[in-house]
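Contributing: when you submit paired examples, paste them exactly as shown. First protein:
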Amino acid sequence: MIVQVVIPRVGVNVTEFRLVEWKAKEGDRVEKGSTVLQIETEKTQWEVEAEISGFLHILLEAGNKAPVGEAVGAIAETKEEFEKVQAESGGAPDQVAPFKGETSPDESSGSAGEGGAASGRRGLLITPVARKMAEEHMLDISRIKGTGPGGRIGRKDVEAAIQAKAEKREEPASTAYHGRRVRGVEPLKGIRQSIAEHMYRSLSGSAQMTVMGEWDVSKIVLLREDLLKEEGVKDTRISYVDIMVFILSRALKLHPSINCSLLENEVKVWADINVGVAFAMGEEGLIVPVVKNADQKSLLEISKQVKELGKKAQDRKLLPDEVTGGTFTLSTVGRQSESRFQTPILNEPEAAILAVGAIEDRPVVRDGQLVIRPIMSYSLTFDHRVINGFGGEQFLRTIRRFVENPSLLML
């Protein structure tokens, strides 16, 4: 029995995934229910499990993209079936469906070599074992000459390239890269690569403007202290993030022109108010799950959903639908940050994002007197192509009214 490893459909709006990492090598035995492949969209990762126990055959290497429903590998129950599917990796439908992605029929038609069938990418023929060796030694396979059938690159070709690379290391370290010594090389991949590409597109494709300021959040602090006294009754611990999501959703309802996107030369003003909340994922960057229809939810409902999404973010279990569909994003600067202000980058296609800092007690002048007040800094970035400075200021003025007098939220 041979079962395909297929890109799953895990969201309504997701059409393709990038293959991040195969958790087993070509020919390794995998157990039913174990993770065999990690995939990702621009905003979240997903794990594909083995449907049966058997031997893994890889059709598409990590780093490539594949559409939902595409077969990118196969699991054969027996060694005999594995060897057969390896030799006929583009064979009959009752074996394994041919891959229709970047690998062309000509590239996959070679006979099986060392470690498996030829795997094609960018017009190159290379066996899975050879490709794995090249990746481990950071070799550019386009510079390796294949000696196999049709110019296919095999194990011996990669070993020769590794040897040649070792001999070149005898050069002085200071000339390793344009006169600079290299401590190490870390490829940009996975979530970090997706975030890098997304941020670059955002900055290069929109006219971003950032305004900054501070709010006196004395009454918000008192409100939260009162709410915490009811923590046991409410079954949730209200956070400042929860309160800000609640305030933003009400402010966006009063200023629909902020809740928009510029798409295909049209300004689309969204009927839904979906507030994304940025969560840190260590060195990987940020993930932004979305509170859908936040303006229709109570503070209690928002608090519970934000905590649920935050837990999923930590566990890397967010579904694609939970990180898409946002219309506005809230980002926060933690207490450990040395900076008070930021210039947040738009989470496209959204037209605005708000970053708020940690609450700090600072001296301010009130009624001619120097007093200490809890102060929160903010930075609002918006796309100046669709939101002008006046609109941004009006939006911030409404937020200030809610922050300085939360009772207005009850009207």
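Second protein:
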Amino acid sequence: MEFPRRVVLDSSVIVGVLRNKNEDVRIVRELEAKAKIATTTINAFEVYYGAFKSRDSKRNLVAVKGFLSTVEVLAFDEHAAELAGQVLTELEAEGRRVNVRDLFIGCIAVSKGFSVVTHNKEHFERIPKLHVVLPSEITQS
């Protein structure tokens, strides 16, 4: 697999980093050396929501803010909204479902020319033109 040069980190990977999971920390460090790393405003919402719901919300909010300060946060803009509307219409016509937050994340990535690195590949596979990468597919080189 060709190493992705522009990646959006999905919430599943960000949470792994925040929990200091070795695989996710290693992947992000490797990506930092070779790629432009970003996430989306939708992912920021998801990790903030998780932090607020947690038992130690103050500590977790500090961790989330710290992590997000190290990556570009891509917005759900009009171009991504248009693409999401088109994709959702096509999927509904085919009788296929997609989680709306994952749709927004994927369409932000596509509209900005990014791949998505996630532990939940099946959540994003229905989005046309989106390159989805599992952390295990990123090998050290």
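If you have annotations for the second protein, write them as plain sentences, like these:
The domain at 6-137 is CATH 3.40.50.1010 (Rossmann fold).
The first helix runs from residue 11 to 18.
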